[in-house]
Design goal:
211 residues; globular; two-stranded antiparallel sheet; four-stranded antiparallel β-sheet; 5 helices
Amino acid sequence: YLSQNNYIEDGPRSAYGAMISGIDAGVGQITTALREEGILENTLVVFLSDNGGHHIGSSSGPFRGWKGMIFEGGIRVPFCLSWPARIKSGLRYEEAITALDIFPTFLDAAGISAESMELDGVSLLPYLSGEKAGKPHEELYWRYSDGAGYAVRKGDYKLVNQYLKPLSLFNLAEDPYEQVNLAEQEPARVEEMQKRYETWNRKNITPLWED
């Protein structure tokens, strides 16, 4: 894969290209195997990244930030589902979702009830099929392991504490690239979202690892 990308003069960018080539080849092998077994049409495949691009060799632009940050450049990532027998091809879903939705989606696909489980995510299948309207999540939360840095999204608004003071508040519908800090203009909203984060965070356990 490195040899396929050695035409790229920038070393880190060339290495990044090699990793992408490896992923592409791996996904191709999986898809080919499913097709040869005759089960591709009725197999649910999820492809996503766990973070935004690294700032060396890649970019999350035009979104702000990169891997390890809770600006959109760090947490807004590709998220694709393929299940030809159940999900319409070419569908683009615009509402905010999270990787935590994958497990309940798999349970739903397998016909397993999650009613007795305390899960943070929800099945995406009824939203993709049109069976359910509305948004899968009214609120989403992110937190670093030390709890000092965090983000809250409620509707179109996102509160960010990226180890910065003062806090940053953005309207993602109008400002998806997080350039205009509205915190001073909307202190009541900042306070409300801070309280929501604190309520959510009290239910979390202490992380078993360090960043």
